[in-house]
Amino acid sequence: MAEQTQHKFIRTDSLIDEAFDSTRTKDFKLVLQVGTDGILVSVNEKAHNKYIAFERYSFHHIYRFDDVCAFMEDLIKQSALLKYKYHTVDCLLVNSLSTLVPSAVYEEERKKTYLKFNTFLEGDEFIATDHLKTLDARNVFALPFCLKGKLDFAFSNIRYHHFSTVLIEALLTQHKNQTSQKVIVHIQPSHFQVVVLDGKQLLFYNMFNHHSTEDFIYYLLFVCEQLHLNPEKIDLRLLGEIEKNSAIHLITQKYVRNVAFEERNDPADYSYQLQALPKHSYYTLFNSSIL
User: Fold this and answer.
1) Which domain holds residue 189?
2) Residue 279, in any domain of the structure
3) How far is CA 249 from CA 58, 238, 257, 281, in A?
4) Which phi and psi (to 5°) does residue 110 adopt?
5) Measured between alpha carbons, how far is 282 from 124 in angstroms, rounded to an integer?
6) Could you tell me if residue 220 is inside a domain?
């Protein structure tokens, strides 16, 4: 059952296996996915590469990371998972402040300049990078200092990544033997990402905001138009926080002929409780081992 607090967050899911022993968390890996829509939490029992716990917190009327930072300490205290020390902690940041740069032209001292080409920075961000092995490219992204400060204090061994790094790397790995084009749409409550693969190559990646099904289908068809992709012929896959026969699923089927759900292809095992989660959901959270 969802738990409302005096703040603007609700714990909507809490699935914890009996294998989760709070005295053994230094043997476990913690993964956080943090955005303005909410926070996802998972715990992996490293010895068996098995996910044994999952929490989801949804935010309401939160549009800035400053607001997330304001209640981060309370959220950590209320969480059944975040109050402990772990062997490793990975944080996946969800925002639009990222850009891909080929490794051949990447220069460390220019990383902020690369980011300014495609995004608007307010000046209070920490600039970090991920290495995408399958592309031999750098994903340069901005992490709000307020969030970094809160999480650094809570977890001394935390590592930061951009969630799109996991999304792109996992999809390229999953489809490494394909020869055709695929359009893959990763959906979250207020935004979605479009990844277009052409054989083994990344043809397109971008993130769009959506507040209605009409917003969603407009941007999706706009991408198809710009890339000269025929909705009658493309192979489109949906994944993320979307339910089958939801409004977004139905409107996509109306305009695109071939629509299917993409499933996670990670090598991990899942506890009994977590096996109930749809296999197309929480793709980046549970594929984070690819980093």
Assistant:
1) 169-261
2) no
3) 21, 8, 12, 14
4) -110, 10
5) 29
6) yes
